[in-house]
Amino acid sequence: MFLYCVVALLALALVVALLVVYYLKYSTKPNKRKILCFGDSLTAGFMDGGSEYWPYANKLQRLLDNKYGRIYEVVCRGYPGDTVINDFEFKFRRDIESSFLAVLLLGGTNDLAYGRSTDEIAHVLDTLCMEAEEIGAKVFVLAVPDCKHGISRKDLNNKLKIVAQKNRVFVNINDALPPTEESLWNDGLHCSKVGYDKMADTIFLELADFLNKI
Question: What is the 3-state secondary structure (H, E, C) of the chain?
Answer without folding.
Answer: CHHHHHHHHHHHHHHHHHHHHHHHHHHCCCCCCEEEEEECHHHHCEEHHHCEECCHHHHHHHHHHHHHCCCCEEEEEECCCCCHHHHHHHHHHHHCCCCEEEEEEECCHHHHHCCCCHHHHHHHHHHHHHHHHHCCCEEEEECCCCCCCCCCCHHHHHHHHHHCCCCCEEECHHHHCCCCCHHHECCCCCECHHHHHHHHHHHHHHHHHHHCCC
